[in-house]
């Protein structure tokens, strides 16, 4: 169904993102995995996904708090798969739980950068790769006390 398509999924080394990568690869898409962890182990995971699904899979690392690294990740994905990016899934997220009065500013900035700004940057960059991309942004919220 997705044979020949290219998908980039942020936050795809575990959980929902990993299952999305597996499903896209299972449907025939070539995939770029992004997330935190040991690059050797994650590259091995990509090889297994590629082998199991009969597609190409790469590990595309980036610190999503840094727009320059996001640009490099998108460029690496497009360059690897022939200047193509058909599907973008913004799935990466981090959290920090603390009462608001004690919430460290640097942690707030990190959460906003990864959960919000990175989705903006990847979504804008996809336009430089292809005119139309299926774009999915996964959002979640955490209930936290403010007292």
Any chance you could write out the topology, listing elements then pairs?
Layout: E1 6-9, H1 15-26, E2 30-33, H2 39-53, E3 57-59, H3 67-80, E4 87-90, H4 105-129, E5 134-137
Parallel strand pairs: 1-2, 1-4, 2-3, 4-5
Structure description:
This protein is of the alpha/beta class and 147 residues long. It has one domain (6-137): Rossmann fold (3-Layer(aba) Sandwich). The protein is 45% helix and 13% strand. It is built from 4 helices and 5 strands, in the order βαβαβαβαβ. The chain has helices at 15-26, 39-53, 67-80, 105-129; strands at residues 6-9, 30-33, 57-59, 87-90, 134-137. Strands 3-2-1-4-5 form a 5-stranded parallel β-sheet, with helices on both faces. β4, α4 (105-129) and β5 form a beta-alpha-beta unit. The N and C termini lie far apart (50 Å). The relative contact order is 0.17. Residues 141-147 have low confidence and may be disordered. This is 3-oxoacyl-[acyl-carrier-protein] reductase. InterPro entries: NAD(P)-bd_dom_sf, SDR, SDR_fam. It catalyses: a (3R)-hydroxyacyl-[ACP] + NADP(+) = a 3-oxoacyl-[ACP] + NADPH + H(+). Its EC number is 1.1.1.100. Belongs to the short-chain dehydrogenases/reductases (SDR) family.
Give the quaternary arrangement of the chains: single chain
The CATH homology group name: NAD(P)-binding Rossmann-like Domain
Structural class: alpha/beta
Main sheet strand line-up: 3-2-1-4-5
Low-confidence stretches: 141-147
The CATH topology turns out to be: Rossmann fold
Give the averaged pLDDT, no decimals: 87
As for the number of domains, it is 1
Strand content bin: 5-15%
Query: Helix and strand string, N-terminal first?
Result: EHEHEHEHE
Helix content: 40-55%
Q: How many β-strands, per DSSP?
A: 5
- What would CATH call the architecture? 3-Layer(aba) Sandwich
User: First CA to last CA: what distance?
Assistant: 50 Å
InterPro entries: NAD(P)-bd_dom_sf (IPR036291), SDR (IPR050259), SDR_fam (IPR002347)
GO molecular function: 3-oxoacyl-[acyl-carrier-protein] reductase (NADPH) activity
Catalytic activity: a (3R)-hydroxyacyl-[ACP] + NADP(+) = a 3-oxoacyl-[ACP] + NADPH + H(+)
Family: Belongs to the short-chain dehydrogenases/reductases (SDR) family.
